[in-house]
């Protein structure tokens, strides 16, 4: 979508709302700023919520959180990770995190889901991935065709709408991704007038996480990283995309090894305690040999988070601090 089309769409949505002119202007300004930052994933997530909020004449609190740079942690519905004590002690190691399947909304009780781009595949919900690909590289990664999505899911959809290959991304073909397990990662792919549109979707719910390997192992990072970059919080927050190269070698390798062994921590308590209120963050980008790019958020407390998975990872302090200290402008 071109920038002028994007702005027109959002202004129409906001114009149908009932708030005062000052609030309306602030909302439009923030949306335009985010479009200029060229962070399409965040603005796409906001789109569905904005249009719905406009239809009922209010601006939902979740929208304001996203506009101010703090991603809401609701996905399709609430996900509350449990510890191993709530699971089966015979299969879960002490201190593991059990991430249940996403709870589908119950429309009879008036429930409404927060929307991320999603696809239902094999009775699991896949949400837009924190691993990115460029359109030019998508064909080389495209595996077997798994089916074609249908549209129809929105914030008001109940459980009966979440059928195989239902989605909120419209109709598009779905493929496996070469080099990855389709139980974890799938791809939407289409060509329109010779232009490729592709996006990755990942399944990070309905799993038990005993260590970082249970999540990061699915990305097949070992031996496949061709380069690494990092970005300061200020650059990321302001959409400046000021990336700095990060040398490989022992520091990065030591961090990645420690990440595999990292202890999982439930996200919700940390978010409630205000971990996102701090600007003590850096973003690490790992370029893989298949040209996929993995994005990790590092927190000064020694924690790492990947995408929307409701879990943080506590990395061994020495390995984390060495990498953190090497990220200096």
Short synopsis of the structure:
The chain is of the alpha+beta class and 329 residues long. It is 29% helix and 25% strand.
Strand content: 25-35%
What is the number of domains? 3
On the 0 to 100 scale, the average pLDDT is 78
Largest sheet: 8 strands, antiparallel
Instruction: Kindly provide the radius of gyration, computed on alpha-carbon positions and rounded to a whole number of angstroms.
Output: 20 Å
Strand segment count: 17
What is the string of helix and strand elements?
A: HHHHEEEEEHEEEEEHEHEHEHEEEEH
Shape designation: globular
CATH class of the largest domain: Mainly Beta
Task: Please state the structural category.
Answer: alpha+beta
Low-confidence stretches: 1-27, 33-80, 84-90
Helix amount, in percent? 25-40%
At the fold tier of CATH, the topology name of the largest domain is Immunoglobulin-like
Molecular structure report:
The protein is built from 10 helices and 17 strands. Helices cover 29% and strands 25% of the residues. The protein has helices at 3-15, 21-36, 40-56, 61-67, 135-141, 213-216, 233-237, 250-260, 267-272, 317-326, and strands at 82-83, 97-99, 118-121, 124-128, 131-132, 142-148, 173-177, 185-192, 195-202, 207-209, 225-232, 244-245, 263-266, 281-288, 293-299, 303-305, 311-314. With 329 residues, it is an alpha+beta fold. The chain has 3 domains: 3-67, no CATH class; 103-202, no CATH class; 211-326, Immunoglobulin-like (Sandwich), CATH 2.60.40. Helix 1 runs antiparallel to helix 2 (21-36), helix 1 packs parallel to helix 3 (40-56) and helix 3 (40-56) packs antiparallel against helix 4 (61-67).
């Amino acid at each position: 979508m071109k920038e002028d089309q994007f702005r027109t769409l959002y202004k129409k949505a906001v114009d149908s709302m009932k708030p005062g002119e000052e609030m309306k202007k602030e909302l439009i300004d923030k949306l335009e700023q985010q479009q200029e930052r060229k962070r399409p994933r965040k603005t796409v997530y906001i789109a569905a919520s904005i249009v719905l909020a406009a239809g009922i004449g209010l601006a939902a609190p979740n929208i304001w959180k996203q506009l101010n740079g703090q991603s809401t942690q609701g996905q399709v519905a609430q996900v509350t990770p449990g510890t191993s004590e709530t699971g089966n002690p015979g299969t879960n190691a002490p201190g593991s995190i059990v991430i249940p399947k996403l709870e589908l909304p119950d429309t009879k009780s008036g429930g409404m889901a927060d929307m991320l781009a999603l696809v239902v595949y094999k009775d699991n919900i896949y949400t837009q991935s924190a691993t990115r690909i460029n359109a030019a590289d998508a064909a080389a990664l495209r595996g077997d065709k798994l089916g074609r999505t249908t549209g129809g899911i929105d914030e008001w959809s109940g459980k009966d709408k979440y059928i195989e290959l239902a989605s909120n991304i419209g109709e598009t073909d779905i493929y496996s991704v070469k080099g990855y397990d389709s139980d974890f990662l799938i791809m939407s792919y289409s060509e329109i007038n010779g232009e490729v549109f592709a996006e990755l979707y990942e399944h990070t719910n309905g799993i038990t996480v005993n260590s970082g390997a249970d999540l990061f192992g699915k990305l097949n990072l070992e031996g496949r990283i061709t380069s690494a970059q990092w970005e300061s919080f200020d650059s990321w927050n302001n959409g400046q995309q000021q990336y700095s190269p990060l040398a490989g070698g022992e520091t990065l390798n030591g961090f990645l090894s420690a990440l595999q062994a990292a202890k999982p921590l439930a996200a919700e308590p940390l978010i409630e305690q205000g971990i996102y209120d701090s600007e003590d963050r850096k973003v690490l980008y790992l370029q893989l040999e298949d040209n996929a790019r993995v994005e990790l958020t590092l927190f000064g407390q020694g924690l790492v988070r990947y995408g929307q998975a409701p879990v943080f990872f506590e990395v061994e302090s020495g390995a984390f601090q060495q990498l953190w200290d090497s990220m200096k402008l």
